[in-house]
UniProtKB/TrEMBL annotation:
Organism annotation: Roseobacter insulae
Name of this protein: 3-isopropylmalate dehydratase
Keywords annotated in UniProt: 4Fe-4S, Amino-acid biosynthesis, Branched-chain amino acid biosynthesis, Iron, Iron-sulfur, Leucine biosynthesis, Lyase, Metal-binding
Keyword Acyltransferase in record: no
Associated pathway: Amino-acid biosynthesis
A single GO molecular function term of this UniProt record: 3-isopropylmalate dehydratase activity
Gene symbol of the encoding locus: leuC
Summary of the function given for this chain in its UniProt record: Catalyzes the isomerization between 2-isopropylmalate and 3-isopropylmalate, via the formation of 2-isopropylmaleate.
Enzyme class: lyase
GO biological process: L-leucine biosynthetic process
Catalyzed reaction equations: (2R,3S)-3-isopropylmalate = (2S)-2-isopropylmalate
Amino acid sequence: MSRTLYDKLVDAHKVCDLPDGDMLVYVDFHIMNEYTSPQAFSGLEQKGLKVWRPEAHLSVVDHVKATRQRAPHNAASKLLIDNLEANCRKHGIAFYGLGDPRQGIEHVVVPEQGLVAPGMLIACGDSHTTTYGAFGALGFGIGTSEVEHVLATQTLRYKRLKTMLVNVEGALAPGVTAKDIIMKVIQVVGAGGANGYAVEFAGDAIFAQSMAGRMTICNMAVELGGRAALIAADDKAYRASGQMTFDAETWASDEGAEYDSVFNIDAAGIAPLVSWGTSPDQSVAIDGMVPDVSAETTPKAKAALARALDYMGLEPGQAITDIQIDSAFIGSCTNSRIEDLRAAAEVVKGRRVAERVNAIIVPGSVFTKLQAEAEGLDIIFKEAGFDWRPESGCSMCLAMNDDIALEGERLASSTNRNFEGRQGRGARTHLMSPAMVAAAAISGHLVDVRDFKKGTA
Ligand SMILES: CC(C)[C@H](C(=O)O)[C@@H](O)C(=O)O
Ligand code: SF4
């Protein structure tokens, strides 16, 4: 029988069926950060358990990491980092900590270090573990008690998901990026529209993407509610994973495989998108307008829209390009890879950040930072007035370190979540591609990067 890529991955990792209908799956690789692992190690300690396969785990410091300097910015973050290091030393687990040339945001570091390959099952106490789907690997986020379970047994209790296929056919217009594809998909399917599903992306617009672009798509697919995102492994994926040969299994869906749900999206119809609201599906094309509450039909939808507009401080009908920004942030596991920095630098080169705008760039990893510096990108950014951070981490993607946006501060951001308070209490996030953030930083307001490049914005 024809099987989907998702079913092949699950079948290949199934250890046994459990009496209640769930199954036990084997975890090839498990990643930890300082934020979601402490209780798991305490749990092991209390039960007197050992880590069963220390070499199949990796720890990376990222969420609470300061990025202006190497040293932790406060005692609480220092404690989290020190704890993780001590736990890793004790159990013989690899640790990429402060000053390690391999340190960075976990989902940037793992592919960079060649630790993901097609056909793997990867777990991590972080929802954006879906990123590895770009390699035809099954990656998903787990909770703290599950982290403990993986440490002790290298397995997890797992429930098979339903399958969704999202086909993006055709060619993107110039200036439209992977970030716009995934924001479009989220707009069409809805935030939470893939709850209970594993989402497979296919179509020529997907396979035309670089590995960085595919990672952006699978990373942000978790905002659909899907607990897995997948792209079939092609030559590009094998090469990027450092695997030169194909293994016995083809990590792609079989011809004729059936899905529980299918969406078709025309790539040519996608414009650069920006979010206007407080959910990643509240987005609109850059040449559009802030939506009108009266266009909603149900009282519930009207109230939700009104609340989002109120939080965002926007007026219905306002042109998106009239929205002035206070800050610009390029970073996060969605968009801080070298390809993202190059795209932003191309926009910024020879220009100056608008007077009132505070513009920050945090490379996704130390390795990415060094590569960017070797290419002279840091000079381009610094000369334009960007704050080029010397250290890597999650930074302003979420308000969990010393980069916290102020009440009412409006940001153009290359990140993935725009919930109330995500980047700081009362902070207003507009999600978009890194090139769009760069263009907004220079212009001082949201702008179509294509018009900006042509000089017609
Ligand atoms: C802190 C962590 C658990 C969280 C996640 O799971 O995604 C964070 O990385 C995020 O992006 O919100
Ligand atoms: S960069 Fe943002 S989305 Fe990614 S792991 Fe860190 S906090 Fe989560």
